[in-house]
Specification:
The chain is of the alpha/beta class. It has 6 helices and 16 strands. The structure holds nickel (II) ion and manganese (II) ion.
């Protein structure tokens, strides 16, 4: 599985079966290294409906024909806007060309222009080669992260920005519960209120949890393998 960061909570994932994007917020994202018309996608997976996650989904999925995988209410809303969607609910998964996608709990909210869009979710992906990736979405810390970790995570993408999500301390506690083979920080530095030092977080997590941390800049990639983390 090849994983590329595009700033904020936007990730591109290439598997042997397909190309996926998670939370493709590019227009208006000062960290983004691509414009939405450069995106190729077979699937877009959404954690929730806030603008910094739903982002350019509509433009990208309309042009590419990508299937949008999201919580039921958000999937219905996007289907109503003409997109191809697949609805999931918390705890439920489905097998697609790239492998399996499952939505897991997250502590946050989800709305478009104040309209309720179901709950926020985290995203658990297992590709056809068995590589497991957890994208926590926007979330506060919760103890059931220990259950999510039981999936055996090759990598966990965790918000560290504070204010709207976990801050560095809580994200370090999340790593302790999740026990991933690799932790990667996200959802920081995009805007002034979520400015953080990811390298300070890396030092804290590596010394406290013994879990390696990879700090990626927008446009940088890593390769993950089943049971190995980053290779
Ligand atoms: Ni949000
Ligand atoms: Mn957010």
């Amino acid at each position: 599985m090849k994983l590329t960061y595009h700033g904020h909570a936007a990730w591109e994932i290439e598997t042997s079966g397909a190309r996926l994007w998670i939370d493709p917020f590019l227009s208006g994202n000062p960290m983004a290294d691509l414009s939405p018309d450069q995106v190729e996608a077979d699937f877009v997976v959404l954690s929730h409906a806030h603008g910094d996650h739903l982002g350019d989904t509509e433009v990208i999925a309309s042009r590419t024909g990508a299937t949008v995988i999201a919580m039921n209410e958000l999937a219905q809303y996007l289907a109503g806007r003409g997109l191809v969607t697949e609805a999931l609910q918390l705890g439920g998964g489905q097998t697609f060309a790239f492998g399996r996608a499952k939505l897991v709990p997250a502590l946050h909210s989800s709305s478009v222009d104040g309209r309720y869009m179901g709950t926020e979710a985290g995203i658990l992906l297992r590709d056809t080669e068995g590589t497991v990736l957890y994208h926590a979405g926007d979330t506060g810390l919760f103890s059931d992260m220990a259950l999510i970790g039981r999936a055996g995570l090759d990598a966990a993408l965790l918000p560290i920005g504070d204010k709207y999500t976990m801050g560095p301390e809580d994200a370090a506690a999340a790593v302790e519960m999740l026990q991933p083979r690799l932790a990667i920080p996200m959802h920081y530095d995009t805007f002034e209120p979520i400015r953080q030092d990811p390298h300070a977080w890396k030092r804290m997590v590596e010394s406290r949890c013994g879990v390696p941390v990879l700090v990626l800049k927008a446009g940088e990639s890593c390769q993950l393998a089943a049971g190995k983390g980053a290779v």
